[in-house]
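Hi all, posting the design record for the shared folder.

TITLE: backbone redesign
STEP: 1 of 1
STRUCTURE INPUT:
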């Protein structure tokens, strides 16, 4: 068997984690080197795959396949289309940046990097798996390491409660999604979990309408839990607050996108008629996500809770884009997923950088920090502006496409979404003023700015955010090649 670039980029972090099992725990520099090399391989190969993807040919490319349980149609089958190529690139950015940020971990470093590398592999595997069994397998592989990473390396008095709540919510969601997936296996009638085979069968004979009617909401809620679908969102801000910095980065940047990806790939792609029945309800839930979570963010005093509820609010735009089921909105949703991933990870990374020095995230303990950390301050302000939808950042492009796509179909929700942007701008300006401006708080007297290699992950994430904001054609044509077959199936069954 020869492994292609997609297999290597997905397996490199897992192989790095396995290698760390044999490294003595006191060899910190070697542990850091192995983690960085594994993440670098994935990052560089994600760029290679994205760059070499043939947009004219489209479809699944860089495919590797090995039969595993032929009688059940289960095979190791990976590859990328336009959707997964963009999301793998996003994950590569965040994985590399997250490993660099993880260099600040001091407690049980070996175990931390093992779990963190498995988390990265699970995220990458979910986006490139072409067998539904392995989509679910890698999804669980990504979720499971989060529990020990927060429970052992997290902070705060409520970290144990946050870990348990996260476990219960995501387990419930995973069970609901599994029921829908098993139903899909039998309803498709092709005796396989192979995604391309099921897609081909569904093109010829759409799934029964009665099946789609009950299976889609199970899939929507099941994967919507990790997407922080209201009212199943309350575990997320608490998880953000308790998690170590690099885990918060992947949690906000990638883990939530796993749920949206599964809904697009399995829900919209295979059950468009069922989706059309339920999406008007989802559109209203999206509006609640935007406004309710945004207003709650306004009241928070802990910076991680502010960013956590802000991220939940932003997921409302993804939900609204999915609900539209139109080319402009769906392409905008995936564009926004990429941009939000970089933006959210950067925000948590910058807060974590200052928290490591001050050991407080409370707004009352911050203030005037821009005088002490000008580099971090500038990036923090730019991140806040990106979150508020300022033109020039990738978030603006995605949000505009979603709002324009929603205007014809869900006009009231589109207006509420614009109001959500106003709320976001309000609490972000309040946060910037309370943290980086005004007189210097005594807790920041000993603050030191990022220097040398410390600047790399932050600069890398900001550069990606600005690049797609100023030149959306970098990723938009690739996204369009991936959404086209899904939109054709939606059109065919509408």
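Okay, here is what came back for every position:
SEQUENCE:
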């Amino acid at each position: 068997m020869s492994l292609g670039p997609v297999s290597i980029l997905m397996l490199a972090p897992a192989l790095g984690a396995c290698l760390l099992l044999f490294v003595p725990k006191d060899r910190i520099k070697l542990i850091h080197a192995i983690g960085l090399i594994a993440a670098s391989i994935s990052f560089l190969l994600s760029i290679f795959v994205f760059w070499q993807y043939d947009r004219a040919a489209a479809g699944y490319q860089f495919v590797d396949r090995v039969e595993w349980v032929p009688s059940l149609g289960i095979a190791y089958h990976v590859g990328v289309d336009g959707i997964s190529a963009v999301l793998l690139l996003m994950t590569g950015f965040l994985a590399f940046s997250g490993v660099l940020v993880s260099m600040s971990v001091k407690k049980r470093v070996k175990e931390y990097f093992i779990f963190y590398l498995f988390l990265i592999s699970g995220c990458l595997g979910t986006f490139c798996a072409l067998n539904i069994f392995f989509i679910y397998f890698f999804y669980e592989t990504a979720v499971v390491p989060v529990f020990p990473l927060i429970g052992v390396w997290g902070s705060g008095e409520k970290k144990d409660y946050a870990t348990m709540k996260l476990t219960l919510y995501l387990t419930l969601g995973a069970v609901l999604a599994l029921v829908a997936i098993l139903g899909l296996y039998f309803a498709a009638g092709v005796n396989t979990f192979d995604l391309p085979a099921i897609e081909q069968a569904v093109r010829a004979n759409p799934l029964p309408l009665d099946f789609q009617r009950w299976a889609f909401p199970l899939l929507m809620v099941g994967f919507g839990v990790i997407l922080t679908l209201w009212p199943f969102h309350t575990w997320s801000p608490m998880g953000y607050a308790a998690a170590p910095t690099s885990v918060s980065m992947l949690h906000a940047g990638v883990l939530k996108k796993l749920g949206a990806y599964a809904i697009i790939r399995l829900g919209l792609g295979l059950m468009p008629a069922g989706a059309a029945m339920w999406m008007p309800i989802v559109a209203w839930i999206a509006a609640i996500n935007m406004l309710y979570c945004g207003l709650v963010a306004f009241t928070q005093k802990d910076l991680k809770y502010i960013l956590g509820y802000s991220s939940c609010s932003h997921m409302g735009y993804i939900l609204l884009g999915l609900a539209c089921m139109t080319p402009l909105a769906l392409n905008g949703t995936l564009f926004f997923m990429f941009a939000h991933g970089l933006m959210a990870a950067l925000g948590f990374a910058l807060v974590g950088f200052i928290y490591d020095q001050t050991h407080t995230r409370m707004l009352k303990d911050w203030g005037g920090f821009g005088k002490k950390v000008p580099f971090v301050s500038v990036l923090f302000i730019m991140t806040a502006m990106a979150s508020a939808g300022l033109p020039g950042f990738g978030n603006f492009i995605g949000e505009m496409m979603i709002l324009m796509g929603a205007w014809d179909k869900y006009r009231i929700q589109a207006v509420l979404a614009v109001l959500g942007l106003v709320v976001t701008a309000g609490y972000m300006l309040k946060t910037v003023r309370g943290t980086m401006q005004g007189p210097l708080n005594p807790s920041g007297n000993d603050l030191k700015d990022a220097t040398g290699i410390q600047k790399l992950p932050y600069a890398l994430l900001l550069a990606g955010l600005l690049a797609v904001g100023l030149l959306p054609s970098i990723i938009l044509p690739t996204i369009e090649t991936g959404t086209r077959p899904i939109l054709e199936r939606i059109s065919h069954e509408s």
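COMMENT: The first helix runs from residue 5 to 20.
Let me know if anyone wants the other runs.
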